Amino acid sequence: MDPAIFKPKHFKWVYADGIATVSLDRPDRKNPLTFESYAELRDTFRALVYAKDVKVVIFSPNGGNFSSGGDVHDIIGPLVKMDMVELLDFTRMTGDLVKAIRACPQPVIAAVDGVSVGAGAIIPMTSDIRIGTPDCKTAFLFNKVGLAGCDMGACAILPRIIGQGRASELLFLGRTMSGEEGEKWGYFNRLVAAEDLIKTANELAQKIANGPTFANGITKNQLNHEWSMGIDAAIEAEAQAQAICMQTKDFERAYHAFINKEKPKFEGN
Predict the structure, then answer these.
(1) What was the pLDDT predicted at 4?
(2) Of 134, 164, 135, 136, which is closest to residue 149 (Cα–Cα)?
(3) Measured distance CA(196)–CA(221) in Å, rounded
(4) For residue range 170-218, what is the model confidence (pLDDT) as tens digits?
(5) What are phi and psi of 76, to 5 degrees?
(6) What are the backbone angles phi and psi of residue 157, rounded to the nearest 5°?
(7) Spatial distance between the Cα atoms of 37 and 244, rounded to a whole number of angstroms
(8) Is 129 within 8 Å of 107 (Cβ atoms)?
(9) CA–CA gap between residue 127 and residue 58 (Å, rounded)
(10) CA–CA separation, 130 and 125 (whole Å)
(11) Sheet holding 190-191, edge to edge
(12) How far is 75 from 117, CA to CA, in rounded Å?
């Protein structure tokens, strides 16, 4: 599947040199999510399974903010008028976005600046790597609007990143986590100045894109599935996964490069 065929209507998509950059496109309102952008993002990340030329995805901010979450007028207002069946359709649809981001083989880097709250915090949480700025503000504020903190996988994923106690505090209180706090807790891999955020994300993405794409996809798959495995099952699963990777041309290329004292050039097969 050619990355050029992705022409979303409800968010920005830029592709170059193996790297796709995604960003929400309502900077005047701090990039809220809508029914349409949720669905289109879900469908795009599902389709990335077949977009072999895309090696890495960067989810970036726009206009100094990442996302203000579900739009009050376009989402919250209609939700209060829905019946249970309609509400469950909606919550399953938003959860499917998380599943799609986790299931796509490409590593996803979230470059976070400014506001990242509600569902706008779930997207970075779901990503594989998070880079933030000192001024970014992250909040899982579902509690603030009378909802449970268990939204879009937050109760499963967030504790695995920052620990059960810290995740409980954020989800019970809906309070804001500062950039410094997020880095200290391991939520952010690193903090950089706002003016260096996109450059840093692209440099990291390029390093990953230059690596063994097939093997990176296997790594992401195992990171997903080993959450629910015991150690014996995980070791066996990794043995099988590594044996598969040992059959790739990239493994052979790396061997010959090492013998010849050269840097391997991976081709993703």
Answers:
(1) 67
(2) 164
(3) 30
(4) 999 999 999 999 999 999 999 999 999 999 999 999 999 999 999 999 9
(5) -60, -45
(6) -90, -45
(7) 37
(8) yes
(9) 9
(10) 8
(11) 11-16, 19-24, 56-59, 108-111, 129-132, 190-191
(12) 15
Report phi then psi at 15, rounded to 5.
Answer: -125, 135
Question: What CATH architecture does domain 3-209 belong to?
Answer: Alpha-Beta Complex (3.90)
Two structure tokens written together for 230: 């015991």
DSSP secondary structure, 190-208, as one string: EE--GGGHHHHHHHHHHHH
Domain boundaries, the chain: 3-209, 213-259
At 64, list the tokens.
């100094």
Q: Is the pTM of this model over 0.70?
A: yes
Q: Do the first three CATH levels of 3-209 and 213-259 match, i.e. the same topology?
A: no
- Residue written as token pair 């050619």: 2
Question: Torsion angle of alpha carbons 221, 225, 227, 229, nearest 10°?
Answer: -140
* Fold observed for domain 213-259: Lyase 2-enoyl-coa Hydratase; Chain  A, domain 2 (1.10.12)
The contacts of residue 256 (CB under 8 Å, 6+ apart) are none
Q: How far apart are CA 240 and CA 238, in angstroms?
A: 5
Q: Which long-range contacts (CB under 8 A, 24 or more apart) does 9-15 make?
A: 9/36, 9/40, 10/34, 10/36, 10/37, 10/40, 10/41, 11/37, 11/40, 11/41, 12/62, 13/44, 15/54
